[in-house]
Design goal:
The complex is a heterotrimer of chains A (64), B (389) and C (265).
Chain A: E1 2-5, E2 8-11, H1 17-24, E3 31-34, E4 37-39, E5 54-62
Chain B: H1 19-22, H2 29-37, H3 43-50, H4 54-73, E1 76-84, H5 111-123, E2 128-132, H6 142-155, E3 158-162, H7 168-176, E4 181-183, H8 191-197, H9 206-210, H10 212-218, E5 223-227, H11 235-252, E6 257-261, H12 280-293, E7 298-301, H13 307-313, E8 320-322, H14 350-359, E9 363-365, H15 372-376, H16 380-385
Parallel strand pairs in B: 1-2, 1-8, 1-9, 2-3, 3-4, 4-5, 5-6, 6-7, 7-8
Helix pairs in contact in B: 2-3, 3-11, 3-12, 4-12, 5-6
Chain C: E1 8-10, E2 13-15, E3 19-22, H1 29-39, E4 43-50, H2 61-66, E5 71-74, H3 82-96, E6 100-103, H4 116-128, E7 132-137, H5 141-149, E8 156-157, H6 171-180, E9 186-188, H7 194-202, E10 207-210, H8 212-215, H9 220-240
Parallel strand pairs in C: 3-4, 3-10, 4-5, 6-7, 7-8, 9-10
Antiparallel strand pairs in C: 1-2
Classes of the chains: A mainly beta (64), B alpha/beta (389), C alpha/beta (265).
Chain lengths: 64, 389, 265
Amino acid sequence: MKILLNGEPYETVARFVSELIAEQAPAVRVAAVVNDRVVPAAEQATTALAEGDRVELLTFAGGG
Amino acid sequence: MNAVSSSPRGDMPRELDPRPWLELPPPDARAVAAALTTEEPDEAAFVTLVRAEPTRWLEAMAQRAQALTRRQFGRTIQLYAPLYLSNYCSGGCAYCGFAADRDQVRHRLEPDEIERELTALKRLGFEQVLLLTGERTPHAGFDYLLAGVRMAARLFHEVTVEAFPMTVDEYRALAEAGCTGVTIYQETYDPDAYERFHRWGPKRDYAARLDAPSRALSGGVASVGLGALLGLADPLADALALFRHVRVLQQRFWRAAFSVSFPRLRPEAGGFQAPHPVGDRWLAQLIFAFRICLPETTLVLSTREAPAFRDGLAGVGINRMSAGSRTTVGGYDGRAEDTGQFAVSDGRDVTAFCTMLRAHGLDPVFKNWDSAYRSVLSPPSALRAEGGI
Amino acid sequence: MNQEDDALVLGDHAYTSRLLLGTGKFASADVMARAVAASGVQIVTVALRRFDRDRPDDALLTPLLAMEGVTLMPNTSGARNAEEAIQAARIARELCGSRLVKVEIHPNPRHLMPDPIETYEAARVLAADGWLVMPYIPPDPVLAKRLEEVGCASVMPLGAAIGSGQGLASAELLKIIVREACIPVIVDAGLRAPSQAAAALEMGCDAVLVNTAVADAGDPPAMAAAFAQAVAAGRSARRAGLMPVGQEAQASSPLTTFLQGGERV
């Protein structure tokens, strides 16, 4: 399935947001936004991905 | 911060209660010097200055008060005139010449008489008028007052009201009719003294009166005037509670303008003996302390005070004064029958008063604001729509 | 005076430290973590960024989460308008569960000045939604009161431009904000030296937030500790009451001779 991940085309076998996170960032705490909707942490395992979804994975960085 | 919490003393909100400050030892020279020059005046500075030893500090306080008055207001004195619409009163204030049990000719101005009084004041040059009534009666209730405001607003740029406590909706209606300010003195902040001197009538309700300035501002009135009738109770305690009252309201209603007046009881007023008489020097010191600690707030002195006292304080703390006042109903048109609410001590007419101000290097200002802005810039309904007040 | 009874209160939380530290621009996560530890701060700001596959570890967050008593305050930097800031706050909540959010909207990348209109709108929406909103603002006393009215937990006016190190360039406006405010005032941005942080507390500000001044210092952990000491000293000085400025000269013509006659009561 082709999605847009953090602004770039990406091919994935992940069916759910949680699977995409496990594939991408197993050791990092990330938040997911699918098609501009913030996916609550508790819903990552049940939120299905679809062809063409725009997915953003975000984490904390240093900032003031 | 804005919640009014009750103290053990019944009706006095804790945020106004002066007692913690009254128990402090008299201020030392270091504390007075600090309060005199502070850039951040607070209630500690205020109480320090009110209690400072006058022979040593009064002159320095006057100098500072004059400098701060000039910085904020320039060399100007705003002039206003009181207009008594009615002396009917349901109140039982033990100290007042208009109290319901006083032997007094009762009268209210009818529309044509109001028009004549307003015209007479206008001819004297006034643009700011203060409309007064007693406590609410069937003769002079809200509708009567509202009609008076409407008439005055057609002729005067600023119309303020000193009457009875009202509801937010009533204040809103006044504001929409052109009322720019409401003056309401708590008389005394001491709940026990308040109860003793307000013997009957709606004015016995301490809390309803205390909260009236908030209601006026919530209703869209642009400015409120506060004060205590000095002499009814411990004047230091009343002064500090008044100071705290102003500060609390200024933080909450930060868009509003405020003024403070300094009425004091005279022993001779209606035969009532002031239990805590206040002398000239103490009152002057109080006014200096208010100016130093509220540098941007208008301070008012009326014709209750004698010429020499008024002349000395004009521009030295005080920046707004009445002149040529009549405290009788119908007094400006020369047709009054009553003996007035209180005795006027400064009987000079407007011309003589302005001559004195100019001789002191002060400019009498009759008009401070143009009513043309009323509908253009700050319709009360627009203020409300912001939801801010 | 006892520090315990002099807490910085934000919403329903009380903090004994009046220094807040940003976590950006440090040479490494390790240096940042040592600076946080050395300063004893209880609130640190963090920013959001896209996950980077080339840096798959959680170098920043891991040491912070391991520290006792450190609360994360996500900021919304990168947001150019209210809508983006609100979205950033919601994303941050999923990451750390914090109700604290620093609303920071600076549309112009050259001077990084906060946009007061977008900041107000974002703060209004987030405060109504239950957040403890900490808006980063220009030193504007009216804006500060407007933000207080919509329920912000504090206001964070800038001392000077972010990263400029110019200190309390806005001092006179900050004094007005402090005098009028009923919520904590936290100076955010522009500080370079601990003495400037002490001065902010002396003038009545409730706390300061620094980042570049620590991250760019020769020894960041030592500088963080110095800021913590300066903030504590400034607060103590404020509570102790400063000495008066020099006496004004007495004018030559007296103003109170009219009071020297017989006392009129």
